[in-house]
Model the fold of this input.
Amino acid sequence: MNKTAVKMTVNGQAVEGKAEPRLLLIHFLRDELGLTGPHVGCETSHCGACTVDLDGKSVKSCTVFAVQAEGANITTVEGMANADGSLSALQEGFMQEHGLQCGYCTPGMIMRAHRLLQENPNPSEAEIRMGIAGNLCRCTGYQNIVKAVRYAADKLNGQREAAE
Amino acid sequence: MSDTTEMTLEQREATIGGIGCSRRRKEDIRFIQGKGNYVDDVKLPGQVFGDFVRSPHAHARIKSIDTEKSKALPGVLAVLTADDLKPLNLHWMPTLAGDSQAVLADEKVHFQNQEVAFVIGEDRYAVSDGVQAVEVDYEDLPALVDPKRALAKDAPVLREDVAAKDNVGQGPRKHPNHIFTWDIGDKGETDQAFSGAAVTVKEEIFYHRVHPCPLEPCGCVASMDKIKGELTLYGTFQAPHVIRTVVSLISGLPEHKIRVIAPDIGGGFGNKVGAYAGYVCATVATIVLGRPVKWVESRIDNLSTTSFARDYHMTGELAADKDGRITGLRVNVLADHGAFNSHAQPSKWPAGFFNIVTGSYDIPAAYVSVDGVYTNKAPGGVAYRCSFRVTEASYLIERMIDVLAQKVGVDKAEIRLRNFVKPEQFPYKSCLDWEYDSGDYHTALNKVLDAVGYKALREEQAEKRKRGELMGIGFATFTEIVGAGPSRNCDILGIGMFDSCEIRIHPTGSAVARLGTKSQGQGHETTYAQIIATELGLPSDDITVEEGDTDTAPYGLGTYGSRSTPVAGAAAAQAARKIRAKAQKIAAHMLEVAEGDLEWEIDRFKVKGLPEKTATMKQIAFAAYQSVPEGLEPGLEAVNYYDPPNFTYPFGAYLCVVDVDRLTGEVKVRRFYALDDCGTRINPMIIEGQVHGGLAEAFGIAMGQELTFDENGNIQGASLMDYFLPTAVETPVWETDHTVTPSPHHPIGAKGVGESPNVGGVSAISNAVVDAFAHLGVTHMPMPHTPWRVWKQCEALGIGE
Ligand code: FES
Ligand code: FES
Done:
């Protein structure tokens, strides 16, 4: 099948590649760019393991064609660390609150939680649960994921207050 | 002499970070940065892909397979069918249960989505095209879906390949669709208990067909180096060493030319114990093509083909005196094993550990009989987060004791307290032949009753019932049996179910430990290091734990059935103790005293009576490579293969409170209190995480998960659109608690915990739902308790509107 040139910004870097029209964004990220943080758990947009941030929205990259992401600005879990290389508040929160076990859902969860906290910096427990409802985890029972997101919210809010 | 001499004892303990501390996990740092290495992340030079053509029919004869169009497509490299595998004798493979299983359908298909051909191509998309283009001509046959019909005279014969055999690996058969009969217990004594009983109860209890559905599906990358004649197989293997032996036995490649690597695994829960057709086909394909071949199943493939769990049609009966003291238990089971008897389990018994069915109760007489049959469904099964058939057994007894309580009018907590094995009876020999190592069931349940304010809950329930509202309180006071297992009871392919640990201490006092198990999220890199840290007095941080590479790790039987801590954890402690024994000799030499003059303290040996004369483990490590006493080999390492003397028997007391909306059938879990006793606790944070996760899985099973089939054997809802995986919104909040009753035979007293919450959780939730209807005369409601079914129950009782 004919391939089309695609360009996008991924984790702050301009990237180019060639893609068949039917190539899914998740496969472009994983197979072409070698970004294996986002995972495939279903390919039917139910599990959220493939979640990335695309132009300021959480998207399931198994349900987006690579060519649809032409010109987009994408962040994957590999782009989540702070500018100085230290762990972001969310990454730290997942580790401190034991918000992961097998780690397969984690990159998607972190990306979804990242967008959630942009939209709602101070979410209640119910809002966190609703906010991550598109991301399945088979290991943790979610309780510690909720805590991890709360940990990050508190840390980021603290930093914001200190800066003001 | 040491960098830790100025520290207090507490500070030194804290530096070690050993058993009992909730240290953060070593594995997290890679996962939170997207740097895990799961099988689909493996990318070898020249790698190609493979995928299956699958049968749309549940039962059909294959008239012809035309692969020409497929092979002509750009990017398609080869298509394999059973006929291609036949010359290699790989079109069928043996199962652990003594049956055989088709790798690619040979003349017939026996379940929907069965593997019919394997297409190999340059990339995933070319392979999809190739799969579409294979033309298979089928002659549809009547499907056998209901196991209760399997043994009928006029039932269609499924397995023509074994129809004439009087044994398919597990004893005599009585019908071409029959696999085995297994019974245990004293039938006469049990019958007697029933005939003289003041009270008897009986209930049909079906444990439905479910699937472990880890978030990462199964897959592998097989790579043959034709020059060296070496095969490397990466895959989602809960038991990599066993896979190596199996591959060697069925492929004929010598075992030393095979390297099996289980990289990071995205959850297993039993799904990744078995050997699947994809592994075999990818292996054949790499041998044929000389290029690495990757196979990763889709979610639909996963749910419909690689392993299922349960599908047990049980009839339970209890006999008791008028106060509800149980005098006898009788259980009959019809087990639906699907198309091939390929259950992945290590015991010598066809129903695994089902005879733990007497549970936590002191039952004098019991008799169990299980019949396994073939149906046109995916083969299996596996133990979905439990020891094989333990969840079924526990569900049966936990349901039945509630049925009995209702019959005799005794409170459901009280009837348990009356029947529990008493603390002074341990080690307790059950009438079905287990020897429970330790337990204190009364303390556990009483602690839960106090913590939740049980009396007040029952009062609230009584009030609500007066108002026509439905509230249920459910218990599970279960006993698990884990740590498979003593080699007299358990083996795989004749290999005893030991596990292993090899520890090497480096000169500067850090270490690497390699074990025969394989974590799928349980946190072994952290917890094994904690065990070794405590035993050797070296900081957890300085101990690297490796698993999953058969070239480096010692042989072990893998991770399932909560066996890692009971077996490999024991091996870790024993290997460390060997090292400490040698270290003591070196320390005596360093300090110029006799070995017996030394005592161990956290991280060092001290000369008795001369507390300032010490040698820390770190110092000893260096000395081991520099100046060992005469007659002693240099170096500091050890390996231990641990064959456990017995299983371990973790237990728990769970309480669940539900509110049921009689107009919608919706069940809300208002409270769930889980007390677990897994003996010595290595890392409480990880234990709690395991309990949360297991309970969430139990909630899914009890409330919605089910694989069903229509009358033609079409699987219904094998995608995440239909198969219920709870999200954060439905999942209840879990309260956890514990007691500690160490295992007397385990080196550190630990029992294993990962599966207890699944075993206990399902019963507690289901019991709570039924309890909400108990005052209306309801004794049992089949799982899963979906709103529709619960509402149907309300409707039948005339309270649905
Ligand atoms: S893989 Fe994209 S949602 Fe599951
Ligand atoms: S940590 Fe395993 S799926 Fe979430």
Notes: Chain B is about 25% helix and 25% strand. The first helix of chain B runs from residue 9 to 16.
